[in-house]
Amino acid sequence: MITLILMSPREVAVKLHQTIRTLNNSRGFSLIELMVAIAIFSIVVTTIVAAFQSQLRSHITQQQVADMQQNGRGAMALIKRDLRDGGWPPNGDANTSITTTPTSLIIVNDFHNGLDDDGDGVIDDPEEKWMPDGDSDDFGERIVYTVNADNELTRNGEPLGLNIEVMDIVLVNAAGTPAAPDDMVAAQISLIARAGEGATPSVLSNKHTDTREYRNKQDEVILPAQNDLFRRMILTTEVKLRNYDVK
Fold first, then answer.
1. What DSSP state is assigned to residue 232?
2. Distance of CA 190 to the CA centre of its chain
C-alpha cells in the first residue's frame, strides 16, 4: 500500500495491469482436463482391482487344490495300509477276507485274542496286534470303507476324507486281471477327489470346466465327464496283498 502511494499514477496503472494479467493466467482446470484426469484415475484403479482379484482367485484355487490333494493322499495311505494287512493271518480259520461291493471295501482280520498278552493292563493294544484267537469278532478286526452321500470317505462310519466322490477297488491276480479270492494277490485302488466345498464351486476360484472322463487301472470308466465347474484329481495305485500272496 505504501509502495502504491509513492508511485506515480502511470506506475500505479501499469502495476494494476500486470496484476490483472497475472490473475487471468492463474486459471483452474478446464472441464476437458478434469475428465481426462478422472479417466486416467479410473483406468489405474480398475487395473489394481483386477490384479487383486486375479491374485485372490489364484490363492483360493491353489488352496482348494492343496486341500484336495491332502484329502486324497491321506485317505489313500490308510486304505493301502489296511489292504496290506488285510486277511491276517494268511493261514487262519477265522473267515478272514477282503471283499468289495460297488460302494464299499470290507476287510476282515483276526488280529487280536481279547487278552492282555503283554501284561500292561490294556487288552488288545497295538503291541498285541498280531495275536489271533481264531475269530474275527474282536475290536478293530472288521474294517469297512465306504463313500457316503455327502462325498465323505468313511472308515467304520467315521469320516476319513472330505470331497471323495469315488472309491474304486479291483482285486487282481498276478496277471493284473480281476480275480476270485483264491487267486488274488493285489488290489488296484482308485480315488477321485474334488476341490471346493458344498454343492457349487466357489465364485472366487479360477473358472474351470471339468470335461474329463475318469478311468481306473482296468481302463473302466468310474466317473463320466461331469461338465461342471469343479476341479478333480484321480489317484491310482496297486498294493500287494501280503496275506494272500502266500495262501
1. E
2. 16
